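FORM 7B: Structural annotation worksheet

SECTION A. Query
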Amino acid sequence: MISKIRQFQAVISAVLIAVLWLTPLAASGQDLVAYSSIASGSSVFVFRNAPRAAKRVVAAKPVRTQVARLQTVTRIKKQYETIARANPKPQRETIVTPDNVPRIKSLSPEKGSKVLAGVGEYYIQQNDFENAIDILREAMTLDQKNTAAKLGYSEALALKGNDLLEKNKPNEAKALFTEALANNSKNSAAYFGLGEVYSELDQTTDAITNYEKSLENDPKLTEIYVPLGILYFQTGAIAKADEMLTKAIAASPERAETQYFFGLVRFSQGRYDDALPALQKARAIDPNYAEAFYQAGETLEALKRPGEAVAEYQNAVALKKDYFDAWFGLGGAQYDAGNYAGSADAFAAAKRLRNDNWQTMGGLGDANLKLENYDTAASNFELAITLLTRVKDFNKETAADLYSKRGFAIGQQCPKNQAKFVPCQWPSAIKALEKAVELHENPQWK
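SECTION B. Predicted structure
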């Protein structure tokens, strides 16, 4: 008899805690309504329009692909060489073809150095940087005061370094760029080469510094706008990123990467209507650009157009099966569009890729709550709570929300359990709801 009384008291406690916890939520638009009587042993409330636990996950930092990096190196190098040919630099020796070289030993060191410097220029024009470096080094040895030889040597080193970058050998290239700048502190080719090296090594500050110096020494190198704008964006310098990428789009609007990062800049500024066309153009230019589809989905979600966002996310995961952020985004968009089965499937796919993300578990719990899969919902809310509360200084309101949903899901499972002659898990429900009240930071609850 005592046991039955205690059980009944537990049910009463659960109901009281639920009502205390949920009434303010109903007042603020959660739409809480009565469900059944205490005597039935069932829950006394339901959520009609419960919001999902996490609106969005923090996506991975957008990065440039290796292919994009190498393409940038090629474009900058080509632009540099075109500019150099169209605008011969002062203090450079007149070209001397190897066939017209007199016997160097018969000349004074100064004249011999001058001739060799001209031969070095010839090899630079032929893109034979190995011979250019050797000849110009010899010219410098003959006459250490030969400025033309020194400048030519610096350029040959930088151009050879950029050749190595195109072959994806940044560490070898770095030494050549450093030596090039030691011989000419205004060598724009060496600076943009070092910018690429440091960008590859994720040394962003050094990369930005070297790109800026390259532009300072040669403002016509407009191909630098894209990598520099991307680095500004990645470091949070949005205004500078905007400036660079706007210039880049004006110069070359048909590049998918430029449109993509320009869209990211507009998205980060909250200018979603401006971000969307850029992202859509990026994925139109490159139909395999999974990140552009994903970000278009994020933008459509921000514009409250979840039905359209679903298609973008679906394209992203079709292109990259292991794209966690896109699976998460798809789960959220499906939920917001009212397709709870699709939402559960997408969050489950995200969970398979990463089982350490509380937002994913919360989203999976929310979708299953809508599908009335209460046991599954409760277990996922429990996982979400475990992962969230491991985070230092976790958000207590968020944790309280997860605890309340877990308690609610356990209570809603009770009628199903009773139909199978399985005991209701009221102690677990009570514990979850009590924890929700404990974590809730509104003073009126204390």
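SECTION C. Observations
The chain is about 70% helix and 0% strand. Residues 267 and 275 are 5 Å apart (CA to CA).

SECTION D. Sign-off
Analyst initials: ____
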